[in-house]
Write a structure and sequence with these properties.
alpha/beta; Rossmann fold; binds S-adenosylmethionine
Length: 309
């Protein structure tokens, strides 16, 4: 998609990371009234990170490529399908902001399947956003940015998505419309339980509970619904290896200490928290979502990697 069309379509939700004035799309840049200007790259993203370094420890280009292989092979598709259903059925949602989007799998899926929504997605890592934008055949508005200082106009976003990524609830609340929603995915208690068992001697805790994340969420939002989405996959060794390389669970562990041949299955489990502002305003009118066809792709990351070569 042409970059000017990508960033001028829909509502303009961006604000200048320097002076906080609204940013508008002019030719190949986003520009504010004080003439701060941010170029849209040829791949279709803009860097609005201000002074941030633009990378996070452990997440490098290779880990995002591996994450993409796993996600595109379908190992997280039960979660993306549920998210499509949820976001598609929330009333009055036009603008959707995916915070800490990584290599962009969920934003691309939502953009494709809920084409009437305006998808905006960002991550603090420039490597991840480059990969996300290059892989996008649709019209997601990608930017490099920081959840702790969103270059987004106040109350302009109808749905904040935060999928396995760090949150800044004060900023999310500021960016959200007063009738809006937050949809957050946290690991389920059984997420990657087979890897946890294999690595138990090297992890601080061999059992995981997401309760503290849920409690913290409930301090900031009214919890409307909580949905557990879980699938256990038979997974070829090659995919288990790619998975082990990309998951933050094993980032600090010497991989030679973990024998991946000792499990043939892996559980991918997310708990989806749907929330709304504690001081919510009731929307004026409600609108139903469109139905979504479920995809039926059998996961295989190593195969999908090969087929791309
Ligand atoms: C576990 S990954 C999840 C990525 C993606 N949501 C997914 O589920 O595939 C966490 C992501 O959060 C990003 N991240 C960490 N701190 C961030 C911040 N302050 N602002 C924006 N993104 C951040 C990381 O770069 C990483 O891509």
């Amino acid at each position: 998609m042409n970059n000017t069309i990508r960033f001028s379509s829909g509502r303009s939700v961006f604000r200048c990371p320097i002076c906080e004035e609204p940013l508008l799309c002019e030719k190949n840049s986003l520009v504010c009234s004080k003439h701060h200007s941010f170029d849209i790259s040829k791949h279709g993203y803009v860097n609005l990170a201000g002074g941030t370094k633009g990378s996070t420890e452990h997440y490098d280009k290779e880990s995002f490529q591996k994450r993409q292989q796993i996600l595109e092979a379908g190992y997280y598709s039960h979660i993306s399908e549920e998210l499509i259903d949820i976001v598609g059925s929330l009333p009055n949602v036009v603008t959707v902001l995916d915070c800490g989007c990584g290599e962009g799998f969920y934003a691309r899926e939502l953009d494709q399947r809920l084409s009437e929504k305006q998808l905006i997605a960002f991550d603090i890592s420039r490597d991840s956003i480059q990969l996300a934008a290059k892989s996008d055949k649709g019209g997601v508005q990608w930017f490099v940015g920081d959840s702790t200082n969103l270059p987004i106009r106040s109350h302009s976003i109808n749905c904040i998505l935060d999928i396995f990524a760090p949150a800044n609830y004060a900023e999310f609340r500021r960016a959200m419309s007063r009738t809006g929603y937050i949809v957050k995915v946290v690991p389920g208690n059984g997420h990657l339980k087979e890897f946890r068992e294999l690595a138990k001697d090297h992890l601080r805790k061999s059992e995981y509970s997401n309760q503290s994340l849920v409690d913290y969420f409930e301090k900031h939002f009214e919890l409307v619904e909580r949905k557990l989405v879980s699938r256990t996959f038979e997974m070829p060794l090659e995919d288990r290896e790619i998975f082990a390389d990309m998951t933050p669970l094993l980032f600090n562990i010497d991989r030679s200490q973990i024998d991946l041949t000792k499990t043939e299955t892996l559980t991918v489990e997310g708990e989806i928290l749907i929330g709304r502002p504690l001081d919510r305003e009731e929307p004026k009118k409600a609108k139903g979502g469109k139905s979504n066809k479920a995809k039926n792709t059998k996961p295989n990351a190593s195969k999908s990697k090969k087929s791309k070569k």
